[in-house]
Amino acid sequence: MTIREMAPPTHPKWNADGYSNFDHTFDIGEDALAAILRDGGVAPHSAWDHHGALWYEDGQFHEQVSAYGQVVGVVSAPTLAEVVAEVNERWGDL
């Protein structure tokens, strides 16, 4: 199942505030976003060459990464910062 099937932008727990590579910040702060994700929310990670969907499951944060319309990978880590750092290292931080 893809993140789009799990929680599309029309999903009631879709949160437009996520992480942006434009200014390298969590839009509402890392702690606030982590709380939303732990409560079943899903949020975007916007970047130039990729897009991600962030969520929390099984005690870890996850991001499904897509580039040019194709899913290219999933990254999991104990913190949001670690997930975003790994995604940006692998697929670019622009």
Structure explained in plain terms:
The chain has a 6-stranded mixed beta sheet with strand order 2-1-3-4-5-6. The model has no long low-confidence stretch (mean pLDDT 86). The longest helix is centred in the C-terminal third of the chain and has 12 residues, at 80-91. The termini are far apart. 27% of the residues lie in helices and 33% in strands. By secondary structure, it is α+β, with helices and mostly antiparallel strands.
Characteristic terms for this protein:
94 residues, 3 helices, 33% strand, six-stranded mixed β-sheet, 27% helix, alpha+beta
Could you give a short description of this structure?
With 94 residues, this protein is an alpha+beta fold. It contains 3 helices and 6 strands.
Distance between the termini: 28 Å
Output the structural class.
alpha+beta
Describe the oligomeric state of these chains in a short phrase: single chain
> Whole-number radius of gyration?
12 Å
Q: Tell me, what's the shape?
A: globular
Low-confidence stretches: none
User: How confident is the prediction overall: mean pLDDT?
Assistant: 86
